[in-house]
Design goal:
Helix content is 70%, strand content 0%. It is mainly alpha-helical. The protein has one domain (65-223): Orthogonal Bundle (Lysozyme). Helix 3 packs parallel to helix 6 and helix 5 (140-150) packs across helix 6. The longest helix has 46 residues, at 7-52. It is elongated, with a radius of gyration of 43 Å. The termini are far apart. Mean pLDDT is 83; it is low at 32-55.
Length: 224
């Protein structure tokens, strides 16, 4: 049987074409696999980044700020607990006055509370036998002078029955005494006995009485 001319060449060409197509498909398939693996690795890497990335920064107070915050909240608690005869809103207002004005005038808010406890036992209508009024037991003549410095309208003794005004005037008066004598113990004795009493004692080199200071310290110790 005779072979037709060129049939052999056609057969070889078919084999070559098939091989080329197979190779092309193989390369395409390998590229798809590689792309899929790269995509999977990228997702895995992103997932790790998301899970291992540090959390959002939270503001943390330093020890000094924490102590100030603790003190502030403790004083708030003391005010709310001790001024029970006053409405809650008024107690919050008193807290602002005691805490902020004391600090602004260089007085420890705990000391302000201790003076109130010693002088009036937190009773806003207290009146002493020698004519001192209100929470911080201030005499009208002295209170009027201090109120004038602060720009507080003076309406007589009734002004001292306003808890906010009484404490504001009392803190300012104590701060003025501290500035005058340069010592808190002397200022406290002057607050209790009068500045002239302290001046005369110091002039005559006489010791100051400490009974009032001891009362203040006892109340202060109970609060702190």
């Amino acid at each position: 049987m005779l072979r037709q001319p060129g049939l052999h060449k056609i057969w070889i060409s078919g084999i070559i074409l098939s091989f080329v197509l197979f190779l092309a498909n193989y390369l395409v398939f390998q590229n798809l696999i590689q792309a899929s693996e790269e995509s999977s690795c990228m997702q895995h890497h992103q997932g790790n980044v998301m899970t291992t990335s540090p959390p959002r920064t939270v503001s943390v107070l330093d020890p000094g700020e924490m102590e100030l915050y603790r003190k502030k909240e403790h004083i708030r608690t003391l005010v709310l607990r001790n001024f029970r005869e006053l409405p809650f809103s008024k107690r919050l207002e008193l807290f602002d006055v005691i805490y902020k004005k004391s600090q602004a005038m260089g007085i420890d808010p705990y000391l302000t509370l201790s003076i109130i406890a010693t002088e009036s036992s937190f009773r806003k209508s207290a009146i002493s036998w020698d004519g001192a009024y209100g929470l911080m037991q201030i005499k009208p003549f002295t209170a009027e002078q201090v109120a004038c410095k602060l720009g507080i309208p003076w309406q007589g003794e009734e002004t001292l029955f306003d808890p906010v005004l009484n404490i504001t005037i009392g803190i300012k008066y104590l701060a003025d005494l501290k500035d005058r004598f340069g010592d808190m113990d002397q200022a406290l004795v002057a607050y209790n006995c009068g500045p002239e009493f302290v001046s005369n004692r110091m002039k005559n080199e006489e010791k100051l009485p400490i009974r009032y200071i001891e009362k203040i310290r006892r109340n202060l110790k109970q609060m702190v």
